[in-house]
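Course assignment 3, question 2. Fill in each field.
Student: A.L.
Task: Predict the tertiary structure for the chain below.
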Amino acid sequence: MERSNSNNVKPKSPWRKNLSAKIAAIPMIMTALGIFIGCSVWTIVHSFTKSRLLPKLDFVGFDQYERLWSTRRWLVSIENLAVFGICSLVLSLVIGFTLATFLDRKIRFENAFRTIFLYPFALSFIVTGLVWQWILNPEFGVQKVVRSLGFENFTFDPLYDPDIVIYGILIAGLWQGTGLIMVIMLAGLRGIDEDIWKAARVDGIPTWKTYVLVIIPMMKPVFVTALVLISSGIVKVYDLVVAQTSGGPGIASEVPAKYVYDKMFASQNLAQGFAASTMMLVTVAIILIPWAYLEFRGKKSG
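Answer field:
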């Protein structure tokens, strides 16, 4: 009688699973990495030169970075990005999650509300910026409408006030992007087992406490996805600013992406634009690398 040798069969190592699919993906991965890494290295190298209209390897050390951080326009753009980014992250998550919790209660006309909230995301940033430029215009926008109702002293012109112009851009950004975050959160809420809610009701746990202590921790992957989407939109914000203010009044609403574009194409100063884009890349890396390390380390430990 032959012995079964099933116990002697070694399990496949993890890297051999779906080997054919991995091999098929190699060209795409190599192309993507080559373009991303190659272009990033090329940009960083030329940021240490004095390239103007055309790139050339005429190195000047850190002169471009010293000039960059001594330029008031760049400092204002960094400050605006920080204000816009923090407010956009917090408000998008809070508003999106709040709207999702209301829709998750199986309200009437849910499909209609979901469509209304999500519709702005279908518009381009240029269209959104122009629409909100009209809405916030004091001559025929919100201020004009309210004053026509008898409130003659009412003032609301954020796009013309250097101190609060970034918040006028923030309003347009939230109007367009919050619907997508709401849909993502709603999908996460619909994935929660109904038995959890039943158990919370039996135990007499208030609804708000169930959300804070049970539901939100279970939706960590959903929040991470939303956070990545919001962050990517914040770093590359450009269209809204150009459509609404073109960086004005003065330089009050400048952002890093617009600074890079203007330096590289309008001022024909490639090296300065490369230095600014390199600083944007470094900022993103400082934020993402520690997060990715902790995330994958936690999964590996698990």
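Instructor remarks: The two ends are 44 Å apart (CA to CA). The domain at 62-301 is CATH 1.10.3720.10 (MetI-like fold).
Grade: pending
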